[in-house]
Amino acid sequence: MAQLIDPARVEHKLGRYGVAAAKDLTDPTLWQRTQEYRRLVAARLVPLDKRDLAGRLPAGEYHLSRKVDGEFAVLVFSGGEALLVNPGGTVRLGLPLLAEAQQQLGRAGVNSALIAGELYYRHPSGARPRVHDVSRAARQPAGQPELDSLCFAAFDLIDLDGQPAPSRHAETYAHLQKLLGGGQRVHPVEAAQVKTAAEIEQYFQSWVEQQGGEGLVLRSDSAG
């Protein structure tokens, strides 16, 4: 990992897993771009109650995805190596999910990538992921099974081989499916294309009310 961060700066937690400070990345712009992306996304988010769907959403096609309860992070891939950077300045490396990402992106012929997503904890019981489970397992893992349960749900491309993501989010998600589809610990966030408030309500009822999910995220290339 020398090309991304000085190994001497890594605090090892368990086995190969370790954490470091983003200020020690050999390319400091990686942390800056993570923070900038987070700020831009937060500025565009508009919270909606289920009761507001019909009245506030303009007609159009929407990309709907699960809102994952985890820790926002950017997956950095370069030179065959991968790590995670979060806006707060924590770098995580040596996780099983990162080894999987290296294999996926390497097979796809990718040289470098910045992929936005959520680091989350997959409960063996199938219970809903909670951000405090991520915090516990990532800060002080009790054993290898906890590290094995840390996963990454990708929802956006920031950069792929030096090129920004396509302007249309549908194309971006197609890229993520091509790169990470079928992954066990690293995969695109679950998503669907919808056109009406009634369809959105159906997903809300299924994913949130019945399955206990945190919420939904809607994007539209035409409506925002």
Q: Write the H/E string, N to C.
A: EEHHEEEEHEHHEEHEEHE
Kindly state the number of beta strands. 12
Q: Helicity level, as a percent range? A: 25-40%
Give me the oligomer status.
single chain
Beta percentage is 25-35%
Average pLDDT score: 93
Q: How many DSSP H or I helices?
A: 7
How does the helix and strand content classify structurally?
A: alpha+beta
Largest sheet: 9 strands, mixed
- Measure the end-to-end span: 38 Å
pLDDT below 50 for ≥5 consecutive residues: which ranges? none
Radius of gyration, rounded?
18 Å
Bulk shape: globular
Structure in words:
This protein is of the alpha+beta class and 224 residues long. Helices cover 32% and strands 30% of the residues. The protein has seven helices and twelve strands. The strands form two sheets. Strands 1, 2, 4, 5, 6, 7, 8, 9 and 10 form a nine-stranded mixed sheet that branches. It is globular. The relative contact order is 0.19.
